[in-house]
Amino acid sequence: MKTLTLRRPDDWHLHLRDGAVLEGVIGDTSRHFARAIIMPNLVPPVVTTTDARAYRERILAALPKGDRFEPLMTLYLTEHTDPDDVEEGRKSGLITAVKLYPAGATTNSHGGVRNIDKAMPVLERMAKIGLPLCVHGEVTTPEVDVFDREAVFIETVLDPLRKRLPDLKITMEHVTTADGIDYIRSSGGNLAGSITTHHLIINRNAILVGGIRPHYYCLPVAKRENHRLALRAAATSGDARFFLGTDSAPHVDPLKECACGCAGIYTSPNTMSCLAHVFEEENALDRLEAFASLNGPVWYGLAPNDETITLEKRVEPVKFPDKRETGAGPVTVFDPMFPLHWDVVEKR
Ligand SMILES: NC(=O)N[C@@H](CC(=O)O)C(=O)O
Ligand SMILES: [Zn+2]
Ligand SMILES: [Zn+2]
Q1: Residue 159 maps to which CATH number?
Q2: How confident is the model at residue 177 (pLDDT cuts 50, 70, 90)?
Q3: CA distances to 53, 111, 126, 183, 189 from 163, in Å
Q4: 317 within some domain
Q5: What interhelical angle do 49-62 and 19-30 show, nearest 10?
Q6: 311 domain residue, yes or no
Q7: Residue 231, domain member (yes or no)
Q8: Which of 41, 172, 177, 335 gives 108 a disulfide partner, CB atoms 3.0 to 4.6 angstroms apart?
Q9: What is the mean pLDDT of residues 115-134?
Q10: How many domains does the chain have?
Q11: 137 within ligand 1 shell (Cβ under 6 A)
C-alpha cells in the first residue's frame, strides 16, 4: 500500500465564520491542520486587535476536545484602520497579517477599501514592521469582466502598490490565473501566492456546463482550463513562493442554492485527499509537503510543524459526507467529481 508522511500542514487562508457555523466546521480543519490564517470577513468584520482577540477566543472555545490548533488572526483593513493598533497587535503576537478586500469584491467586503491612498499610513507602518498584507486581488469596477478582474487588479492596483511600497510583504491570495502565477514568478521579492484546493481541480465549466452549479461558485471565479494548468504547475513546482490556502468558505445551503447565491466552496473535510490526488496525477507527491507544510511557514516567518500526518492510498474510494451539518444548517462539501483514494490515517 502506498503511504505518504509529511509534516502536519497549515492552511494559509481559511474562513471559519462564527457561532453555529464555526462550531460545525472547525473540526474539519483542526483534524488535519496545525494552524490556519483566519479570514476576518465576519459580520461585522474583525477590524481591531480587540475584535481579533475576542474572535480567537471564540475559535479556541469551539475546538473539539483534544485537538491542537492555532488560529493565526488577521485584521480587516479599512480606510480608518489605526496603524498603532495594528503594530500593537503584531507585537503582542496576536496578528499574523492584515487583509485587504477591495470594497464589494467578495463575501462581506462592503466595508473594505475604496481608495487605497486612505490606507497608506497603515500600509507604510506594516512595511516598516514586516507585517504581511494579504490581498483579495480583484478589481470591482463594473466595466471589467468578472473573468478579467484578477489580471486587471495586478496591473492597476497590485503592481503600482508594490512600486510605491517595495518593502511591503504581500500575499496574493487564491491566485486563479496564469497572469497571477507569472506575475509572482517574475517578481523580485516580497510577493508570494496562496493557491486553493478547488482551483487546482475545477475550471469554469464546473459552474456552468449542464446546469448552473452553485457549489462550484467562488470568488475569484474559476477560470479557463489553461489557467488551472498554470496553477497546477506552480503548486507542484516546489517554488517556495506558492503554498496552500484552501479558502474553504462555508455557507449554509440555502444561501448557496437561491437566486443570488453566495460565493464560497467548502473544502476543509477532503482537502488533503484532494491534494494528494492532484499531486500524484502530476507526479509530484514528493512536493506536496513543500506546498502544504513548508513554504507557508517560511513566508510568514514561522517554524514548520514538528508533528506529522500520514496519508494512505486505499483501493476503495474514501467516503466523505456530502454535507456537514451545523447548528445553522447543512454546508455542502466540495465534490471533486472523481473518486478520492487517499485518506489521512495518522496524526502524530
Ligand atoms: N472565496 C469565496 O468565494 N468566498 C469567501 C471570500 C473570499 O475569500 O473572497 C467567503 O468569505 O465566502
Ligand atoms: Zn477572497
Ligand atoms: Zn477567502
Answers
A1: 3.20.20.140
A2: very high
A3: 33, 26, 15, 14, 12
A4: no
A5: 70
A6: no
A7: yes
A8: 41
A9: 97
A10: 1
A11: no
